[in-house]
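User: I'm new to structure prediction. If I give you an amino acid sequence, what do you actually give back? Let's try with this one:
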Amino acid sequence: MARATVRGVIFSDLGEARRFMALEWVKRAIERSVGFVPYPGTLNLALRAERDRAAWRDVKERFAAVEIPPPDSSFCAARLYPARIVAAGAAETELPAAVLLPRVAGYPEDKIEVIAGASVKETLGVEDGDALVIEFVA
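Assistant: Good question. You get back a string of structure tokens that encode the predicted 3D arrangement of the chain. For your 138 residues, that looks like this:
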């Protein structure tokens, strides 16, 4: 069984994913693919260390992704990489999640968008500037 971990730092972005995540066809595709109804929005992580950017490149090459095709050409396609968030604190917490990768030209290599069934910030008590570890298993 292959495993990979990527560590990133939480940051707020433009909020564009909230509109995408609110689309019914997106919610249905995500629920079918990873087994949870997504919270309407994504958690952005900046991959600051080269080892984390390299690990994310490795995940995209070696781990299976679920394609989310758009219903028409007015929307972008996306890929989902099933994962879990591992948060260390007083008690270690794991949260089922996935990384949503929009299939758009020029998408930053040092950014990942995490989705979960609930607000990650509220559930784990984290905020912008905090680090999170995302674990992928193939």
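You can read the tokens as a compact description of the fold. Here is one thing that stands out. Residues 121 and 127 are 6 Å apart (CA to CA).
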